[in-house]
């Protein structure tokens, strides 16, 4: 363990919290950090700055980018925490800065961040633009990759609350992927390194969230950035920040991503990557899609039109209102349960206590 959970609270960037993170917050952070080299790497389609920061002077080059999808901000918060750690003067931080050169793009898609959308201003998913390079943001990342020539790439994302670990009732709070580089999903030397580094991170964060780490689907798509960089023989790791119980603002998840980043950099810095194997990576359970935000069992008790043993499933739709993200409940299924489904919150309407609690919830209005 590189730092304690208590010490993390002193590292955490308290000025940037919640789900809505834009250039306003990250620019203010970079401007007052007074650390490393901050530069403009390009402009967005709406002419917003895409800024990066480079720290350290070591031979091992690490490139990290976050908010390629504008509404995926958890890893942005984690890299700000990571920068605070690197500036902290901790012995490990000094070691990292001596052995590594680290370039971080906190927000690659500033237009999407402002609008809180996955896509950019032209409605393009930047993570499907790795071959066409049709968007200015895609070119900013590719130009940075080509000029920096990284030894490792960290592709930082969020995932929805629907994901669980394997077939268990554990949420996939963090998921990883070593992207494929061909249709056969072969294991090249660069992909092997990606797998080993993910195994190292998994080993570390199992200490904090046992059995809550999943492995993302590795279907090959050359248009995806991770796959494209893997095709160029650069070990690339996909991070997916997921749900931790009661943590819809993903403040706990950001902490686990921070620990994963620390372990990854420690592993490459100390050249201990061969202590972890591709078998360790393969043992990480694949993600399932078995969760809903709210599961209501024996729902015929509140809707007489439903048959016995029915369920109602609710998912939250994230909406931007007054610079705040609201979680709006929407019914996605009513009827007999035809597959395994878990709820981050579950009510059994045949139990009077559960029914009383359900009637107090904000989503009761869409049920009654």
Q: Report mean pLDDT, rounded to a whole number.
A: 97
Regions with little confidence, pLDDT below 50 for 5+ residues: none
- Structural class call reads alpha/beta
How big a fraction of the residues is strand?
15-25%
> What order do the SSEs take from the amino end to the carboxyl end, as H and E?
HHEEEHHEHHEEEHEHEHHEEEEEH
Compute the number of strand runs. 14
Count of helix runs: 11
- The neighbouring-strand order within the major sheet is 1-2-4-3-5-9-7-8
The whole-angstrom Rg is 21 Å
Can you give the helix content as a percent range?
25-40%
Shape descriptor: globular
**Termini, distance in Å?**
49 Å
Biggest sheet statistics: 8 strands, mixed
Compact description:
With 368 residues, the chain is an alpha/beta fold. Helices cover 32% and strands 24% of the residues. It has eleven helices and 14 strands.
List keywords for this structure.
single chain; 368 residues; 8-stranded mixed beta sheet; 4-stranded mixed beta sheet; 14 strands; globular
Annotate the secondary structure layout:
Blueprint: H1 5-11, H2 23-33, E1 37-43, E2 49-55, E3 60-65, H3 74-87, H4 91-99, E4 100-105, H5 110-115, H6 136-148, E5 152-158, E6 164-165, E7 174-177, H7 189-205, E8 213-215, H8 225-231, E9 236-241, H9 251-269, H10 278-282, E10 287-288, E11 291-297, E12 310-321, E13 324-336, E14 342-348, H11 352-360
Parallel strand pairs: 3-4, 3-5, 5-9, 7-8, 11-14
Antiparallel strand pairs: 1-2, 2-4, 6-10, 7-9, 11-12, 12-13
Helix pairs in contact: 3-9, 7-9
